[in-house]
């Protein structure tokens, strides 16, 4: 079977199939849901000329942060895989390389969308990612905030996506 080549698949193989079989244009967008939110951003950062927009929907995006590492541990544990197979040991620079928040400046000409639903209106004002993007990187934002009725469930927010 060999090693999975996800970057090659998403940036070369899949676009070729979409263009030849489904008549897609070269204007592309990429989105990731949950654990694939950070990889979608990472791919858009690696190939900013290929993607006009990128979205992270309920994804954890600060991969190298303490919370990001805890989330990674949870994701890999659910798959019964060791966390170091993602980006190496805790002190490996690969964690920083694949943290999309640390490289968000590469998306200056790309439309970026984040979705992180919450049923509590007060919490909408205090999103850590929002503050990092605004203060550290000067990324402008257009807020679209909505409180969903059923916190913690997809049923509560899927009609808004």
Explain what the structure shows.
By secondary structure, the protein is α/β, with parallel strands linked by helices. The protein has a domain at 6-11 and 28-62 and 99-160. It is 38% helix and 11% strand. Strand 1 (28-33), helix 2 and strand 2 form a beta-alpha-beta unit. The chain starts with 5 loop residues before the first helix and ends in a 25-residue tail after the last helix.
Brief rundown of the structure:
The protein is α/β, with parallel strands linked by helices. Helix content is 38%, strand content 11%. It has a domain of 103 residues.
Q: Note the beta-strand portion.
A: 5-15%
In this structure, how is the largest beta sheet organized?
Answer: 3 strands, parallel
Write down how many β-strands occur, each being a DSSP E stretch of 2 or more residues. 3
Poorly predicted regions: none
Q: Which structural class should the secondary elements be placed in?
A: alpha/beta
């Amino acid at each position: 079977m060999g090693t999975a080549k996800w970057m090659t698949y998403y940036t070369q193989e899949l676009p070729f199939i979409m263009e030849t079989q489904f008549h897609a244009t070269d204007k592309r967008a990429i989105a990731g849901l949950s654990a694939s939110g950070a990889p979608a951003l990472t791919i858009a950062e690696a190939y900013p000329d290929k993607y006009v927009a990128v979205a992270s929907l309920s994804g954890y995006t600060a991969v190298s942060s303490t919370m990001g590492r805890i989330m990674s541990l949870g994701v890999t544990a659910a798959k019964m895989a060791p966390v170091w197979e993602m980006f190496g040991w805790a002190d490996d620079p690969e964690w920083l390389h694949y943290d999309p928040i640390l490289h968000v400046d590469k998306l200056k000409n790309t439309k970026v969308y984040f979705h992180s639903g919450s049923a509590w209106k007060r919490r909408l004002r205090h999103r850590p990612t929002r503050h990092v993007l605004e203060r550290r990187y000067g990324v402008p934002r257009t807020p679209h905030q909505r409180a969903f009725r059923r916190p913690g469930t997809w049923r509560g927010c899927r009609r808004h996506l």
